[in-house]
Amino acid sequence: MRVVIQRATKASVTINEKETRSIGKGLMILVGIENADGEEDISWLVNKIVNLRIFDDENGIMDQSVLDLNGEVMVVSQFTLHARTKKGNRPSYVDAAKPDVAVPLYERFKEALSQTLGNPVVSGEFGASMAVELVNDGPVTIVIDTKNKK
Q: Looking at the UniProt record for this protein, which Gene Ontology cellular component terms does it annotate, in alphabetical order (predicted)?
């Protein structure tokens, strides 16, 4: 699994130009799932995300997690995070999992994240046309890939 985590003051996703879902202060997480991902990736990643100390404490030092702040979290699926761009100018997405593999893992990731946070996770809709808006606080943007844990 590969995620792009952005510290946000607010974020929203509009699905199929109709329904908008939003969060306030917290994390916007774009998640890409590949064929080799499984439950162990979800567990490791959820633990890493909720404990990542990227929010300022009272002294202005990044020493608080989204758990410490009781911050909100938005998750949006994004298969393009697994784009291969080495050859030519058209990205290849062969590493991105197909929906029959990706959807159950995406749903499980959101569920595990929500359970660990103790709060609901706002999300986009897998496979839908989505417009994402974000006010990146900092800016702070972190990329984590479960295949590069070391």
A: cytoplasm
- Of 6, 9, 20, 78, the catalytic one is 78
Arithmetic mean of pLDDT, 137-142: 96
Over residues 43-67, the mean pLDDT reads 97
Catalytic residue among 55, 79, 109, 146: 79
* Confidence class for position 150, pLDDT limits 50, 70, 90: confident
Establish whether 78 is a catalytic residue: yes
DSSP string spanning 53-103?
--EE-TTS-EEE-HHHHT-EEEEEE-GGGG-B-SSSSS-B-TTBPPHHHHH
What topology is assigned to 2-145 in CATH? D-tyrosyl-trna(Tyr) Deacylase; Chain: A; (3.50.80)
128, 3 contact by CB (below 8 A): no
Q: Does the active-site annotation cover 64?
A: no
Mean pLDDT for 15-23 is 95
Question: For the chain, what are the domain ranges?
Answer: 2-145
